[in-house]
Amino acid sequence: xxxxxxxxxxxxxxxxxxxxxxxxxxxxxxxxxxxxxxxxxxxxxxxxxxxxxxxxxxxxxxxxxxxxxxxxxxxxxxxxxxxxxxxxxxxxxxxxxxxxxxxxxxxxxxxxxxxxxxxxxxxxxxxxxxxxxxxxxxxxxxxxxxxxxxxxxxxxxxxxxxxxxxxxxxxxxxxxxxxxxxxxxxxxxxxxxxxxxxxxxxxxxxxxxxxxxxxxxxxxxxxxxxxxxxxxxxxxxxxxxxxxxxxxxxxxxxxxx
Length: 257
Known about the structure:
four-stranded mixed β-sheet
């Protein structure tokens, strides 16, 4: 089957059957996914399953979410070999030392999961109407994307009155990494920013937000109980919005005025 890849989507041949049992061939765009090998400073290697677009932001977001990169200044260079599906990233010595510490202390083939030191304070709070306004802006952004029907997961980072970056993906974590990478690559620190997502948060995703220092998450679906427990420990407020103006707050409720 022939495919054509463009902007994270692949054009494929599909056989369609109608109600009368008749079949016909047509083309459809579906999410494009390949396994990329990521090496960092020619030492650490892992695999990323992703669409081959916006690779730089994906890698930066991955390194920030894993606690190995703290600012765009620590990201030195990236080289992408799309033919052989290889990504080579170079980071500053300080970031490399964090990476080495995690790799050495982790089980074989995995990074260790050290305790997360709290990066946020208790200053940021939002009124319910401000949360609803951000949620409406996020929904408008999603509906405006040409790939919204196929790339169904969207994440973004914002300040109280403005969405600063966003990332799409057919994996939730890839969408998060891309949005985080776009934010950091533009020179904006994620500490005390607001995350938005059209999906619920798991503990692993919440852990990555906490490592980045995010203090607020507005989502379209409830978080898991493990995500709520971790969020409370990290002063991270998670809330969901719904039709009719209802607002559900799951953690750090004192952030909602």
